[in-house]
Amino acid sequence: MSKDGRQTTAAIIAACNEAQTIGNVLRQLLRAGVKQVVIVDNGSEDSTSEKALAVHGMDVRIIKFHRALGHDVPRAIGAIAALRAWSKQDLAALLFIDGDWGGSFGPMLQAFIDEAQAVPEAIVGIDAGSLQHGPLAEAIRSAWLPVLDVASTCDKPIPCLLPQYVPRTVFQSVSPIWLGSPGAWFAATVQAGWVWRGFRGWNIGLVGNRSRSVSHNRRLAELIRLDARIAATHLGLQGDHISVLSTLPGREWSALIDYASSFCTGLKL
């Protein structure tokens, strides 16, 4: 427990060229009571890491890669690093957020953490009811809601959305490597008996909605659909025979596996 009686949570942030926003993200984490942070600098060519280290009052660990590792892989690396860094402390959970969020989202994030800590037996994500309109939101709904319906989750938490709160005890039965694919991660945790809950009080618009190119959004929508398909396949909901490695070639799995095997974490890997 922290001094104020709340459970200790470490944040994991994958950031690429987020020098303009990372300072605000860390200050909002402080407002939410989170002081331990791992930032995986995912091929930044700006001063993302330097800006992060300039924020006072936090224990910030930087893991820097000179090339981008693709979606989600840095998140898995950050989880492994955090579990290792604070292995001897009373760390209750990992909190996954993005490094490009704007706005004054600290109080909303604190409410998210408080609700998650009230259900320590569950992984907590953003409920589908928080989705706004647009092509990406529709891609998420069409890809993930059928999986969640069949998987019989209590709510409709979307595994590819952040924030996401994961109790540390999850990693006693599920490898953090699976965080490199939201679909594989969701399937592995469900198969291990973990419950997912959805937080309904998240205002996606409050953290900003950075505009992306049409081609970027198209690629991201395809990735969302592939991850949902991987979840469905691993849960036996469809008859495909697909591999995370072959289906998601844009993710640097070799870098993740090398990082995970470079030290002994005492975790299920």
Automatic annotation (TrEMBL):
InterPro entries associated with the record: Glyco_trans_2-like, Nucleotide-diphossugar_trans
All residue ranges annotated as the Glycosyltransferase 2-like domain in the record: 12-100
Gene3D superfamilies, per database record: Spore Coat Polysaccharide Biosynthesis Protein SpsA, Chain A
Protein name in the entry: Glycosyltransferase 2-like domain-containing protein
Originating species: Alicyclobacillus hesperidum
